[in-house]
Amino acid sequence: MQEVAANIMPGVERQFIGKVHSLVDARTGVRLVSCEFDSGSYDPALYTELGIDRPESIERAVAKRQAEFLAGRYAAALALQHLGPVRNHDVQVGIGAQRNPLWPSGVVGSISHVGSVAVCAVSRRTDKHYLGIDIEVLMSSKVCREVATIVANRRERELLSAQGLSDRVALTLIFSAKESLFKALYPSVRDYFGFEVAEAAELRLKDQTLVLRLNERFATKHNLPRDYECQFTLGEHWIQSVTCGTFAGSMSLIA
Ligand SMILES: CC(C)(COP(=O)(O)OP(=O)(O)OC[C@H]1O[C@@H](n2cnc3c(N)ncnc32)[C@H](O)[C@@H]1OP(=O)(O)O)[C@@H](O)C(=O)NCCC(=O)NCCS
Q1: Does 183 contact ligand 1 (Cβ within 6 A)?
Q2: Nearest residue CA, atom 12 of ligand 1?
Q3: Which helix (H) or strand (E) covers residue 180, if one does?
Q4: Helices (H) and strands (E) in the chain, counts
């Protein structure tokens, strides 16, 4: 595993961007970049200073949204630098019609942010055909009660609790894993699918892997495999999920 120190930044950028971590994830082989940011130090001029385009839809957004978008795109720019030559006019990561990030050709990637942290995962399309990342703060017990039946069915929750996970960890993990699966598959399916479409089917706690299984109808409709491995990391107060892989044969031509 290789870790790279943050770029040294002068003045206002340094106040906005905090610690940056960049590494190749040993489990998945994808480049992961995380950066802390301080919404309170946000200034629109930071877009120019950090070399990130500010789309019109973001210009109209509240400052907090502008700040998280900037931090996510900044993490993406650092991650792309590590992939090597990307054509100059392509280095900006645009916004698709359904808010999906638009990556340079030859690249798959994904962005997530929560609180004061933004994370980005990227890979060359020759190595991974789909890639999604998500980071979540552990849900409170109250939120768990409110969303439990939307996010997971009883079988899924029992699968995780049987291995000793608390309700809060179990539900946050299933939620995060499914969000990462959604982001990974959206560019291929262009279909806004819900939590009921995938089910947590197997938990391998020792290697921090949760297998998600698409229902047969959805998988058949989009000519997709049914099973996806989500690699997760359990922090003290947060969970990060990465779902990535390759499609067999002609599926690799999708997107
Ligand atoms: C779109 C969604 C996945 C975003 O997740 P979130 O937890 O609210 O927010 P995160 O910070 O983790 O992720 C936001 C990032 O996701 C990415 N994203 C948004 N829509 C996306 C899409 N359609 N496809 C891929 N990535 C998308 C963007 O990069 C966005 O950040 P940006 O707008 O700053 O670029 C979520 O709001 C959603 O709608 N989920 C419902 C669908 C779902 O998860 N189904 C489960 C299927 S099993």
Answers
A1: yes
A2: 112
A3: helix 167-189
A4: 8, 12
Burial of 142 (0-12, 13-18, 19+ CB in 10 A): exposed
218's tokens: 């959805």
Q: Which atom of ligand 1 is nearest to the CA of 198?
A: 48
**Which tokens sit at 155?**
């079988």
In whole angstroms, give the CA distance from residue 163 to residue 161: 5
> Residue 129 forms beta bridges with which residues?
none
C-beta of 189 in contact with ligand 1 (< 6 A): no
Domains contained in the chain, CATH given: 3-128 (3.90.470), 133-253 (3.90.470.20)
Looking at ligand 1, which atom is closest to the CA of residue 178?
48
Task: Decide if 23 contacts 2 (C-beta within 8 A).
Answer: yes
> Which of helix, strand or coil describes residue 194?
coil
Strand order in the sheet with 238-245: 130-137, 238-245, 227-234, 209-214, 198-204
User: Whole-angstrom Cα distance, residue 37 to residue 14?
Assistant: 9
Those residues of the chain that have pLDDT short of 70 are 1-14, 85-90, 250-255
pTM for the full model? 0.93
Task: List, for residues 192-220, the tens digit of each pLDDT value.
Answer: 999 999 999 999 999 999 999 999 999 99
CA 183 to centroid of ligand 1, rounded, Å: 6
For residue 7, report the distance from its CA to the centre of ligand 1, in Å: 27
Q: Which tens digit of pLDDT belongs to each residue from 32-55? A: 999 999 999 999 999 999 999 999
Q: Is 197 in the pocket of ligand 1 (CB under 6 A)?
A: yes
